[in-house]
Amino acid sequence: MKTNFKKIMCCLLSLVLVFGTMTTVGAVFVCASEVEAVEISDISSSSISGSDLLNEVIHMITEIFEKIRCLFTNEEYVEITKTSFECSRDGLTIRGTEYRPAGENLPIAVVSHGFMANSMTVVQYAKLLARMGYAAYCFDFCGGCVLMGQSDGATTDMSVITETKDLKAVIDYACGLSYTDESNITLMGCSQGGFVSSLVAAELDKKISNLILFYPAFSIPDDARKGKMMFAEFDPANIPETIDCGPMKLGRCYVADVIELNPFEEIVSYSGDVLIVHGTDDNIVDVSYAERAYEAYSSRRCDGQTELQIIDGAGHMFMSKYDKIAQNYLKNFLN
């Protein structure tokens, strides 16, 4: 008990030191402005952006809390390393983060964020997968982020189809590493990232072992045909060159690339196991789209199993208790 108490006190002291460091550099977080030099333990770069610094500090804090949680629950703490990575697609640089445990021949997991979001919104899933033994990757889609996106590309050049190219580039990068197992790949995606992941799984099929979809946005083609996508309204018979979608300006390709697409016909080419998790109170992508996807996957003539988990009361993007429920579904599915 004394040993655990000492460990907990060390963790709490580390937390205090991290918060103290945050106080001294707090100004860098305003609008994610560029920081010329930051001195923080475990950050070796002499020049780091505000968003990178925020990501680094969040990682340190969450790791401290994870150590404390494991001490109280008597679970083994799995140390994971965090490394930035870059790869490219059509001359654009894709930037992301790798989380992985020690070991060789690690299975691969690639986690894709949703529309207007960025990789920081799915970090918790990448870390969970890393603690489960995966080399896990999250990244910013090219032109796919409204704030703090690190990859190249303009939002007006982004679409579901360009994002499938980004995802395939990240998969290729991960497969080329000496410590990964390219025969064991899991794709996970949230919202639009789920739609993108399902299309890539259908294209690559046997190369993908598992597909995990959290509130997948299979509604996007229907929304395009209606001329109303999130904050954007337009004439689907005369798609404009640029479309104002709240804080994000979209290009014609965002609509044109999906307006003729039937997602439920496209996705069934994938023959592996699928987990779909959706909330009953999702007011962005109705739960009926998850149910239709489940029916489509279940109709496949293959050995792949399909699991649908509906979380009562959960909305779009799982928060607090709903995210814990969803993460438990993820763990049970992969175990």
Structural account:
- The protein has 335 residues and is an alpha/beta fold.
- It has two domains: 1-77; 83-334, Alpha/Beta hydrolase fold, catalytic domain (Rossmann fold, 3-Layer(aba) Sandwich), CATH 3.40.50.1820.
- Helix content is 38%, strand content 22%.
- The chain has ten helices and 14 strands.
- It has helices spanning 2-24, 50-73, 123-131, 160-175, 192-204, 220-226, 252-256, 263-266, 287-298, 320-334; strands at residues 34-35, 48-49, 81-89, 92-100, 106-112, 135-139, 180-190, 210-214, 228-229, 232-233, 242-245, 248-251, 273-279, 306-311.
- The protein has an eight-stranded mixed sheet with strand order 3-4-6-5-7-8-13-14, sandwiched between helices.
- The chain is globular and about 60 Å long.
- It starts with a helix and ends with a helix.
- Residues 15-47 have low confidence and may be disordered.
